[in-house]
Design a protein that fits this description.
- The protein has about 675 residues and is an alpha/beta fold.
- It has three domains: about 15-395, TIM Barrel (Alpha-Beta Barrel), CATH 3.20.20; about 405-600, Rossmann fold; about 615-669, Golgi alpha-mannosidase II (Immunoglobulin-like, Sandwich), CATH 2.60.40.1180.
- Helices cover about 30% and strands about 20% of the residues.
- It has a nine-stranded parallel beta sheet with strand order 5-4-3-2-1-9-8-7-6.
- It starts with 14 loop residues before the first strand and ends with a strand.
- Alpha-D-galactopyranose binds near residues 155 and 364.
Length: about 675
């Protein structure tokens, strides 16, 4: 066993800071940085993420002087460092000497030097160089007093989630051989009797390269699994070097858990992480981006197994990579930051400390903007530091939830492949629809993987859980038998882990549990909606379903399936199994969730709150409760609560007046 200490070592309270790239700045600015960081209460910085080319300007020749000075200066200022392995982007000398490490697209295009992350994750040559650099960093800085945490690479899989180079093909074959043992087993799993795809040896197998039409769906699914595993293998290899050289220092890397980043199955990484770290950016065009933020934060907690996690990056204001980059409105940065803390983050960090003057990210906001310290952004940076300091006692406390929302990366991958019943299905929108209803009803949910034990949850919602193993299907059925109200939506349990249909009527894996049998899918055309018998409408999906033990909760009131079940419920053991064979509108979803929660006996965190006011609690083992209240509306609200308002440092004798856009954290009596 290692002697590793749990994060956050001796970083006090809720850690605060961001990415720090001093190599872009002259000394006088770096000195001013320290002054401004002190003013803002910064305590933790990610350093060296993209520094390889400066730290090793020529192969084997190192220049550490500048980084030594930076770390010494930060240490003198009492600031701790999440130090990078510096391997996130290979230097030009490396890609020039070894062009075989460059990644390739499915069409065969080589992705060259000139941006970042131009490496093939499975390249043994790249791996060897990255390991060497990691060891060099660990040996040089392992005992530096500023070092609090190792940061491996950066957002692994961000730009090149799938690499189709020769190195990748070789590693994919080895991965397949390990998974299937024999080529016959691979042929069976991939269904290669179809379209003359039978393989005689593993050597004939390719990554899913560009092909005349739909590539074998199981091949694609396995390539997605392989690619996620390969990034994890890279993480693990670098982490093992760090553990060997510096067993006392924890290691992490920053994930991208949100509704857009599809290709890394973070649940499968969770056991390997000393601490989970996430990066989250709002979608500027989404007026309800704070709901997607909450989902991402709950997912981060889920991947962390409920433990506190690090918000490693978000933005003080605009980003520079969306089509139109809106700055954050008044108070929005506080609401975002504290919503992450409310849902379990014990660190709030930004990309980045000082806004760059050159390079591709110069229009991305930072804690110190181009316009300098006399700005709302910097004033808010300072104020956030003050607020987080006031929340020090929240650190280590945990969120509790009675509801589980099941999120399954392989189902996401498989359900959105080519050749499906409707290309309008978007797995994340389905997940978000059900999550939104929970959020609007003020109910906290854990976002969990399909492999999680569901014991103890009163309600379980699994939207479009398309691909399931027998074990997962059994676990979900067991949850219902044990007393949970379980709700599954259309296109759940349709295929097994190889993307083979489960025959005998849909939804194969859950037919018995749900007490329904569907003989045919009936996707709706764009713009086509039909009415359900409760007056709500539904779009996108319907199916020709028979009741085989369930009762109909809603039926179709018009359209081709008039009179047939659209939503069903079956009593199971001490619980129930609901099936939503339609896509109800927002109001319809909310009503169904309310019925499910009523039946399960789940109450909101704080009943009676006006719409748009978010309430989440964190609990300490000693029973202390911290109530986070976030007012996303423009209106002032009165909230009945007794305790200490930690941010404003005052007692609340029974009610809180929370101005529009504001946040409060109350240690409840
Ligand atoms: C990612 C990266 C950062 C930076 C930000 C900009 O999260 O990790 O290096 O590029 O995006 O939003």
């Amino acid at each position: 066993m290692t002697t590793r200490q749990p994060w956050p070592l001796d970083v006090p309270g809720i850690a605060y800071g961001g990415d720090y790239n001093p190599e872009q700045w002259p000394l006088d600015i770096q000195l001013e940085d320290i002054e401004l960081m002190r003013e803002a209460g910064v305590g933790l910085l990610s350093v060296g993420i993209f520094s390889w080319a400066l730290l090793e300007p020529r192969e084997g020749v190192h220049d550490f002087a500048w980084l030594d000075q930076v770390l010494d200066r930060l240490h003198a200022a009492g600031i701790r460092v999440a130090l990078a392995t510096a391997t996130a982007s290979p230097p030009p000398w490396l890609t020039r000497a070894h062009p075989e490490i460059l990644p390739r697209t499915a069409e065969g295009t080589v992705l060259h030097q000139g941006a970042r992350q131009s490496y093939a994750i499975a390249s043994p040559v790249f791996r060897a160089y990255a390991l060497r650099m990691t060891r060099t960093m660990a040996e040089r800085y392992g005992d530096h007093p500023a070092l609090a945490l190792w940061h491996v690479d950066n957002e692994l899989g961000c730009h090149v989630p799938h690499d189709y180079s020769d190195a990748s093909a070789t590693a994919f074959r080895a991965w397949l051989e390990k998974r299937y043992g024999t080529v016959d087993a691979l042929n069976a799993a991939w269904g290669t009797a179809f379209w003359s795809q039978r393989y005689d040896t593993f050597d004939e197998v390719l990554p899913p390269l560009a092909a005349p039409t739909f590539v074998n769906p199981t091949q694609r699914l396995d390539f997605a699994r392989f690619s996620s595993d390969e990034h994890l293998a890279h993480y693990r290899a670098l982490r093992d070097v760090l553990r060997q050289v510096t067993p006392h220092v924890p290691t992490t890397t920053n994930f991208m858990m949100n509704t857009r980043n599809k290709w890394v199955d973070y649940f499968s990484w969770s056991a390997e992480m000393d601490v989970v770290a996430n990066d989250h950016y709002l979608v500027a065009a989404d007026p309800e981006a704070h709901i997607e933020l909450a989902l991402s934060a709950d997912l981060s907690r889920g991947v962390a197994g409920g433990a506190p996690w690090i918000l490693m990056e978000h933005s003080t204001s605009a980003v520079n990579w969306q089509p139109r980059n809106r700055p954050k409105g008044p108070g929005e940065m506080f609401r975002n930051s504290l919503a992450h803390v409310a849902r379990g983050a014990d660190a709030v960090m930004f990309f980045q400390w000082r806004q760059s003057l050159a390079g591709a990210e110069k229009y991305h906001s930072a804690m110190v903007p181009h316009a300098g310290r006399d700005t709302d952004v910097f004033r808010d940076t300072v104020e956030l530091g003050r607020r987080l300091k006031a929340l020090a006692e929240v650190r280590g406390s945990r969120v509790r939830a009675d509801v589980a929302l099941v999120f399954d990366y392989p189902s996401w991958w498989a359900a959105e492949q080519d050749g499906r019943p409707t290309e309008a299905l978007d797995y994340q929108s389905e997940l978000l629809r059900w999550y939104r209803a929970l959020w609007e009803l003020g109910v906290t949910a854990d976002v969990v993987s399909a492999d999680t034990a569901l014991d103890g949850y009163r309600a379980v919602i699994a939207p479009t859980l398309y691909s399931v193993t027998d074990r997962t299907a059994a676990r979900i059925a067991d949850a219902a038998t044990a007393g949970a109200s379980v709700l599954l939506t259309f296109l759940s349990g349709i295929v097994d882990e190889h993307d083979h249909v489960r025959p005998g009527g849909y939804p194969g894996a859950f037919r018995e549990l749900l007490g329904v049998r569907t003989e045919e899918f009936w996707p709706l055309q764009e713009g086509e909606t039909h009415t359900l018998d409760d007056g709500s409408t539904a779009d996108l999906w319907s199916e020709k379903t028979h009741l085989t033990g369930a009762t109909a909760v809603r039926t179709w009131a018009d359209g081709p399936l008039t009179g047939r079940p659209a939503v069903t419920r079956r009593a199971v053991g001490r619980g129930a199994a609901w099936y939503v064979a339609a896509r109800p509108d927002e109001d319809g979803v909310r009503r169904l969730v309310r019925s499910l929660l009523d039946e399960a006996g789940v109450a909101p965190e704080l009943p009676g709150l006006p719409a748009g006011v978010e309430a989440v609690r964190r609990h300490r083992p000693d029973g202390t409760r911290f109530l986070f209240l976030i007012n996303h509306t423009g209106q002032d609200v009165e909230i009945p609560v007794r305790g200490r308002d930690l941010i404003r440092d005052r007692e609340l004798a029974g009610h809180l007046a929370l101005p529009g856009g504001e946040v409060a954290v109350v240690r409840e009596d």
